[in-house]
Structures are given as structure tokens and as C-alpha cells.
Amino acid sequence: MKSSLRFRLLAVLIPAMGLLLSPAAASATAGITHDPFRGITNATSINWSGYAATGATFNSVSASWVQPAGTCTSKDTYSSFWVGLDGDTDGTVEQDGSEVDCRGGSPQYYAWYEMYPAFPVNFSNAVSPGDHFTASVTASGDNFTLKISDTTAGWSHTIHKSLSSAAKSSAEVIAEAPCCQNNGDILTLTDFGTVHFSDAMANGSPLGNSHPVKINMIDSCEGGTCGPNKDKTSALTGGENFSDTFISN
Question: What integer pLDDT is reported at residue 61 of this predicted model?
Fold first, then answer.
């Protein structure tokens, strides 16, 4: 049973052990991470929106989505879209996804993988709004295979990593306000309009079969300056499809 209050303190960031980059991968991104669930309740969070399943051992998760366009102002903002194992009830997350960040008033699009608490690793391949992504994370013991494909642009990556501390206690399909700069607060969410997730699966079955919790991102911070962020998650249809919609303040 999940606790009704689950504030997550940011885990200490440590270098990845045995980090091997594919030829098309860039260096780790200092200062920004896609970190575990920071919950107000089971169904509300300051950094996650989407669906998370718990209560079993999860060895695979996958989904597809269309990269949304970011609407930028003069403020720097950040939005991530990903699939992953762990992070809802523990301190690791094995995940891969795409991003739209606004920096200097312009949107920046890219894809990445992360074995949190190690820093994310960004791929150098070009990403554009409207690109169709498919991503998965599969576990076999302590070994993880992370796959991501931009079927519109025609590129894909498969990453093999090991993490002995991973509990494999949850599976997620998430839109996230990433973390952290300076004091560890959640960063301001990029206005991405709506992102549509489809074919969401956990352990080879529709995600809905695992009775996931629907999570909405709400306007709350753990101190300092962050957000304000709001994001509403739709109902899960067919056990596999849903959308997340940015809510302006």
C-alpha cells in the first residue's frame, strides 16, 4: 500500500558506473535530471503526470508518443516525456524519453536515456515536433535494455546497462517537469500543449491491467523557487492510451 504522503528528497547524484556511450550519444547533462516521484498524494505530484503501476515486480514497460511542440517565452522551461521502471516507490529510475526545453526564448528538442541517480545522457540525433517516438525499458535480473526510436526521423538506439540496486517495483509512462538547478527545486514546465501516449504496456500487457494510478501535476513546491506547474492527465482508454495537457496559470 502506498503512503498518502510521499515527498521525495532528491537522491545524491553520483557518476554512472561503467557508463558506455553509443557513438551518437552526447555527454551527460549536468544539472538537469528526470528524478523519482515527488508526491503530494498518490494521485498528485509536483513533477510527474501520467500513469504509474505498483504492487508487482515489473520487468518491462513501453509506449509510443508524438513529440509535442513547445511554446516559449523569455523564461527557461523544461518538459520531458518518457517510459521507465522504478521511481514511484524507490530511489532509482531506469528510463528513456524525449524533451522540449525553452532556453533564451527558443525551443530545444532532443532525446535521452537515464539510469537515475546517474545523470541523463542526451542523444545527438535531431528531434522535431511531430516526430513519432517508441520507447521501452526491459529488465533481466540486474541488466537493463533501454530502446528508443524516432520512427519519423528514422533513427533508434539500444542501450545496455546494469543496476544492482533497482527494485523493479513500478512501471510508468510520464510527462515530467525535470529537476534540478542550484537548490534542487523542480524546474518550470515548458508549455507543450498536449502530448498523446499510446500502446502503453507493462510486463507485456496493457498498462491498465496493472491498475495504475493516474497522476496529475499540481502547483506546489518544496521551497525556494520552482514552477508553478500544472498538468492534467486524461482517462486511460483501452488500457493503453491517454494524454497529458499543460495547464497555464
Answer: 98
